[in-house]
Amino acid sequence: MTKNIAIIRGDGIGPEIIAEAIAVLDKVAEKFGHTFNYKEAPMGGEAIDKFDDPLPQSSLDTCLASDSVLLSAVGGPKWDSVAKEKRPERGLLRLRAGMGLYANVRPATLFDELRDASPLKPSIVDKGIDFVVVRELIGGAYFGEHKTEQRDGEDYASDIMGYSEHEIERIAHVAFQTAQKRRKAVCSVDKANVLDSSKLWRRVVTKVAESYPDVILSHMYVDNCAMQLVRNPAQFDVIVTENLFGDILSDEASMITGSIGMIPSSSLGKGSCGLYEPIHGSAPDIAGTNAANPIGMILSAAMMLRYSFDMPEEADSIEKAVDAVLKAGYRTGDTMSAGKTQLGCHETGKAICDNI
Ligand code: IPM
Ligand code: MG
């Protein structure tokens, strides 16, 4: 098969880790007889520097015309002082909206080999951590009206968190269908004791659940969920929640697995063209030092093969190679522990390629 992949090289450690993901994809292409064509679509800081725009139209067009988009991470202190509309994050939000990517899936999996890296007690970790956060990605406070104005002689700012029924319905379907392929339990997270948007959320999710009698639905307030994630994460299979809650809970979820550098994500909309990125940031402090962990990026490429290109065997080959490298005792700095062998970003990518 031939697939066209848009590449957003990103900022900070972005170019280093995405180079390793491309090397892995090339290895897969060679082994399974595919052709992957890559086209760069500058976004974020790189695009601000080159085009004075965090998402130039030409980049959005490249992404829309591709079979899928691979993104590393954008942003950094260099662009901290640019105007709000020009910030690297704006590029990412416009890309998500422009591609209609309403469903963001972030797995939280504890790699057996990395048990020691979790900050949770062994008695909690030993019960296992294996759930996914399904985060609504193009609604809520991120995309509601933002306003800063004068009120009673002082600054006043507001961000509207709004959801319409169809926006909740479509993300709920994704959550239930994801659960059907897993342990068949959805926990819908909201703040229905306070927020109207959450009351609607709960009502619509409950209605959608009727079409999935094989899946068990529960509801949880977001504050309780934040607590349950560190108290007993083994209780979760699929968490579905709105944009801002999902942003916060997915960071917490990744941290309890002890390896934010290892977690991939997918963002999908109506079609099969998705956006795949590791959930970590651009880590400008270690950029250019070959110290980054490329595994979250490489596993994002594997997710792309599985979910957008329908290439499960190819995806398996990458995931197995990552496991093999970890089992052999190789680690990047972020997951390093006594008795293991530390590798750089490039050497880790190469070791994974060699295992495919
Ligand atoms: C994420 C990030 C983004 C978000 C930022 C960079 C806008 O935190 O992907 O979780 O808040 O969605
Ligand atoms: Mg975030």
Features:
single chain; 356 residues; alpha/beta; two-stranded antiparallel sheet; 12 helices; globular; binds 3-isopropylmalic acid; binds magnesium ion
Cα shape? globular
- Secondary structure class reads alpha/beta
Q: Average pLDDT across residues?
A: 96
Characterize the largest beta sheet: strand count, sense, and whether it forms a barrel.
Answer: 10 strands, mixed
State the strand order across the main sheet: 2-1-3-12-11-4-5-10-8-9
Continuous helix count: 12
Which ligands are bound?
3-isopropylmalic acid, magnesium ion
Low-pLDDT stretches: none
Question: Roughly what percent helix?
Answer: 40-55%
How many strand units?
A: 14
Describe this structure in words.
The chain has twelve helices and 14 strands. The chain has 356 residues and is an alpha/beta fold. A ten-stranded mixed beta sheet has the order 2-1-3-12-11-4-5-10-8-9, sandwiched between helices. The longest helix has 19 residues. The radius of gyration is 20 Å and the shape is globular. The mean pLDDT is 96. The site of 3-isopropylmalic acid has 4 residues, from α4.
